[in-house]
Amino acid sequence: MLLATDLDGTFLAGDAETRLRLYQLIADNPEIKLAFVTGRGLENVIPLLSDPTIPVPDYIICDVGGTVVEGATRQPVQPLQAEIDARWPGERTVVDAMVQFDRLERQDVPQQRRCSYFCSTADVRHSLAGIEAAATELGCEVLYSAERYLDILPRGVNKGSTLKALVEHLGIDPDEVVVAGDTLNDLAMYEHGFIGVCVGESEPALLEATAKRARAKHARVLHSPHTGCGGILEALGHFNFLDLKGVDAGPRAAEPPGKSDLVMVYHRLPYEESFEDGRLVRRRPASPNGIIPTLLSFFGDGKKGSWIAWAIQDPKKAVNFVTHTEVDAQKYPRLVAARVPLTKNDVDIFYKRFSKEAFWPTLHTFWERARFREEDWLVFLKVNRLFAERTAAEAAEGAVVWLHDYNLWMVPACLRELRPDLKIAFFHHTYFPSADVFNVLPWRRDIVGSLLQCDYIGFHIPRQVENFVDVARGVAPLKVLETRACAPRYLTYGYAVGLDEVTTAIEVHGRRIGLGAHPVGLDVDRVRQVLDEPKTAGRMTALRKEFADTRVILSVERLDYTKGTLEKLVAFEKLLETHPELHGTISLINVCVPAAKEMTIYRTLQNQIEQAVGRINGRFSRVGWTPLQFFFRAIPFEKLVAYYAVADVMWITPLRDGLNLVAKEFVAVQGLTNGSGVLVLSEFAGAAAELHGAVLTNPHDPHDLVAKCVYALEMSPVEAEARLRGLFDVVQHNDVHRWGQDFLEAVEESCAASSEAPQPALVQAR
Question: Is the pTM for the entire model greater than 0.90?
Fold first, then answer.
């Protein structure tokens, strides 16, 4: 069967329960073909297609019948569209002819093959004859509906004629078509003998015009008292298109609730796994610094929770896959790891290839490096679906689900369908770029549509929030509900990605979505504990002795083209060229953590870095002094702390970075040891927004990199100490505990505001 339905007041109307019932009914029954038949222009229909809760139509008839396209591709259905085009005299011709009727007000909405106006009933009575005569002369006709809308259309073109032509084109039995509408411009759909329903609160003129069909002995039109989707559901049952039990059974059964009040959804487990001698072995991460300890800390108070992450399921290993494991029975007694079984191939495609080759470069504004493969996208969707299903099984009724980062972009769409009761929060750890960059992604509408199913979305800094708002605005009609000043916490006009005001709530498709800037904080207590260990003092003493005659410039980063390692080394070479007086007095220590062996995209960069290191040391080294020490390996945090402590300058120069926790680690160590080290930080790092006191540099400008590094080296002790005090204040106050508390409080506040907000009024039907 084919369900051909108007949108506003019809398919998009009704209470939430009946909409869900109808949408699930269509999704669960592929034999039901769906056609949107609307007065909207195609541009105003497209935003609906990004909403994962609304079924994607097989066909779209819009512009009151003037446009007919396939739902999936939005390409014209031919030859139907060509036949309509041949009847249309052109927009400019029609507008010029109608300019004489000063009581017509052109609608400022997208429209093709029609000209749409506002016109009151009184004005229509006064001018209708003249308008119709002018339209007839152009080969057009007039359609007036809802006592407000007036459309000039090609002669013989309306919702009904185009629907009839589509039905014939597809070879569908007319008796297998159900039409649904609520205003007079839907009348034409009923005039071709199709079975139909006028939903509750329909325009009286439509009810009057279809009254005979509704009262006939074998009535083919139902006047339903139920609004929107409720009326459509009643009609499907009334006309026996589907088994009554199926129609009346209610919404698809939701996933039964789990037991976890807080569900952390992250792509990695909070421990490492490996197979040794045929058995699965768990151990602490080799490099525990980063986000994982931060997230684990939220379960330290005994909160009942689940940590959702992938685990390799290898059928060749003689080990049964275990879904649930303990994380740390002593520290987190009520936290379980819920493992999502993935094949090694799935992980390689989903994370190591697709995420890093398609999404990572785009997010960091290196879109020209991106590789887009549709087959990889399908794997990405599959993996995200598995994560959503596991999350739905773990979460208690009304639980908070905290999703992390771009690898899980499509989870909200699936999860909202499976568990509408959940509070879905998403934190974007990576940089979120401007719309002109993000929109390079072929699947941008799907991604943004999924994110808009969240109750709350957090980013590191205000600029990233606003970038998301701009992207979302290009996907669906968006209303900004709340804004907040960025100052005094964040820099405004003082750096490359500064902003004076940030959006904190938006409305899309009638849903309220909270937004916020939440730069990840540091676990300062953990840093303090490491500093208190006797081994740390010994390491610091040894390093100070080693570099007693030189000032230390320190850099710590992962191997990645976004981190600006090569650009920094080139700048350091230039520094040595232009400042010979510094020879023998400074040393650059660069720690660069290598990427996984499978990530071949970094091999060229690694070779370039190694060549630069060799060239610099070859040019400038002398007996007793090597200007550059390059460690191409991970250094455990316990040892790294000692390097932070002895550094005179921390030189962090990513070309683009969501935040950069290394900068905060340096500040914390310096502050806790009463140091006076200077932080030189890229103004394109998210941390630059809140770290007042850092010397900001433009990593894309070699001259500025050199100048700011030299400035830091030559800074007076008084200035250095003052800057560090300010930095340490920020890092100590806005620590990881405050970050988590602020984020979760923002989630609860946003959900409360959504539940209290009045339901938006239905859009006037077209």
Answer: no
